[in-house]
Specification:
By secondary structure, this protein is mainly α. Helix content is about 80%, strand content about 0%.
């Protein structure tokens, strides 16, 4: 269905995304890796129009994340990611909205876990003194 050139580009982008994820904090890296893996599997047999949109969006994601994880950017901003514009929700179907909500829950859960771990470590450290 797709040319070998297309398959090679998809593979290259897939590997690039995982390489860019290496710069993320551990919890975000795992979340990002799992999400990317699932999305690429889910779109493995999509039609050419969807494939073009999919590759464009993931390429933009990889470029933006690479810029945000550069050491100079991190030293200045100390942030990764950007907020989703509310207008984008209007373009999403029900399945995408559910997926976005699940991703939000997972990201919030990971952040809470990190906060809890840090609090426990601080308490243990003060108890040991």
């Amino acid at each position: 269905m797709f040319s070998s050139d297309h398959v090679a580009r998809v593979r290259l982008l897939y590997k690039l995304i995982f390489r860019v994820h290496r710069a993320l904090p551990g919890e975000l890296r795992v979340l990002g890796d799992n999400y990317a893996r699932d999305e690429f599997k889910r779109h493995k047999n999509c039609n050419p129009v969807e494939a073009k949109i999919f590759l464009t969006e993931w390429t933009d994601y990889a470029i933006n994340l690479a810029k945000q994880t550069k050491p100079l950017h991190q030293a200045k901003k100390k942030t990764v990611g950007k907020y989703l514009e509310p207008e984008m929700l209007e373009y999403m179907n029900d399945e995408q909205l559910i997926q976005l909500y699940e991703l939000h829950k997972a990201a919030s859960s990971d952040t809470d876990d990190v906060s809890n771990k840090n609090e426990i470590l601080r308490k243990e450290d003060s108890d040991n003194r």
